[in-house]
Q: What sequence folds into this?
């Protein structure tokens, strides 16, 4: 496929479904204001779309599109905007929104606002086991009247009996 044909196909796909694959990469940062980055000449950005931002030193950050006005997009950067250079910062629009997988394996874990685990490991949700030496010594024994149980397997008042 010739380069001209590829460009034509890409433009047609962009106009038809407002989504480009692969996503376009922009170097059109026109301003930084607090946690916000303003990009100019962006084609078909989507609300809440995730943006990958690469700084001139190679550091990667993520952001989300908050506002769209014609060909401008305002992106909120999650990790802060310090070090963002308007001329050399690269922004890639992913075409996807922020998603978090959900399963029972998440129970007991700690996550940040982006849904990434920050505990680095699974935590035990059962708590600490009871130290048998720190328990109160049983003093009130219950006599069942069956000598085998009373001698071999004594039962104390308040004791929990587990069935087999």
A:
């Amino acid at each position: 496929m010739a380069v001209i044909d590829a460009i034509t196909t890409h433009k047609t796909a962009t106009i038809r479904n407002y989504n480009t694959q692969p996503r376009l990469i922009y170097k059109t940062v026109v301003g930084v204001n607090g946690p916000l980055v303003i990009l100019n000449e962006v084609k078909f950005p989507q609300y809440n779309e995730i943006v990958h931002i690469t700084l001139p030193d190679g550091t990667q950050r993520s952001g989300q599109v908050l506002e769209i006005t014609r060909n401008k997009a305002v992106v909120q950067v999650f990790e802060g905007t310090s070090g963002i250079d308007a001329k050399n910062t690269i922004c890639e629009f992913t075409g996807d929104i922020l998603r978090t997988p959900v399963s029972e394996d998440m129970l007991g874990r700690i996550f940040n606002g982006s849904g990434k685990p920050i505990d680095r490991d699974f935590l035990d949700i059962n708590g600490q086991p009871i130290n048998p030496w720190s328990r109160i010594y049983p003093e009130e024994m219950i006599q069942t009247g069956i000598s085998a149980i009373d001698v071999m397997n004594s039962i104390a008042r308040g004791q929990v009996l587990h069935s087999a």
